[in-house]
């Protein structure tokens, strides 16, 4: 019986998928594609849905919403900017740009200081659950990121019971 239990433990460890394998496999830079954002606000029946295209390159995330309205934003280490047709203008000084970029880049070393990380799946279909352990727990209950070679979805469950889901598709790397 002990031999069977040890063999089972050894086999499960041999096939375990870990964070280093994920990070060596996933592409989070020089990518572009399409997105859909679905926001369910607590107490409201209808969801807010927007869509458009995005790019992530060199630590800069750009999102161009095309439906239901045209809106372009950029997030980099200097903040969040909205495009007015000619220039990018800084908006929302309260937005945590570092947290946002760390999530999109799967910078798990940086995220470990603020979240408990739980990885499941394999390199073809994985999911990371981020459970806040400090002041972020006042905003988010948890954040779930899932994908394959790319991040395909992010679900932000807020303490207010609002839920925001980002879906990423038609992703291309190396543009």
Automatic annotation (TrEMBL):
GO molecular function, one term: hydrolase activity
Position of the signal peptide: 1-16
Enzyme class, UniProt record, top EC level: hydrolase
SUPFAM superfamilies referenced in this protein's UniProt entry, alphabetically: Prokaryotic lipoproteins and lipoprotein localization factors (SSF89392)
One Pfam family recorded for the sequence: LolA
Source taxon at top rank: Bacteria
EC nos: 3.6.3.14
Keywords: Hydrolase, Signal
InterPro entries: LolA/LolB/LppX (IPR029046), OM_lipoprot_carrier_LolA-like (IPR004564)
Record protein name field: Flagellum-specific ATP synthase
Lineage: Bacteria, Pseudomonadati, Campylobacterota, Epsilonproteobacteria, Campylobacterales
């Amino acid at each position: 019986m002990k031999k069977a239990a040890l063999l089972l433990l050894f086999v499960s460890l041999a096939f375990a998928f870990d964070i280093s394998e994920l990070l060596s496999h996933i592409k989070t830079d020089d990518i572009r594609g399409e997105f859909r954002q679905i926001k369910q606000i607590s107490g409201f029946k209808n969801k807010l849905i927007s869509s458009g295209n995005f790019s992530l390159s060199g630590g800069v995330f750009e999102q161009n919403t095309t439906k239901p309205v045209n809106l372009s934003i950029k997030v980099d280490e200097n903040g969040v900017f909205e495009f007015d047709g000619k220039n990018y203008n800084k908006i929302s000084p309260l937005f945590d740009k570092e947290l946002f970029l760390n999530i999109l880049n799967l910078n798990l070393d940086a995220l470990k200081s603020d979240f408990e990380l739980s990885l499941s799946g394999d390199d073809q279909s994985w999911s990371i659950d981020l459970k806040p352990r400090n002041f972020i727990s006042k905003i988010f209950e948890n954040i779930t990121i899932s994908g394959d070679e790319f991040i395909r979805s992010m679900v932000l469950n807020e303490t207010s019971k609002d839920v925001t889901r980002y879906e990423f598709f038609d992703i291309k790397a190396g543009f």
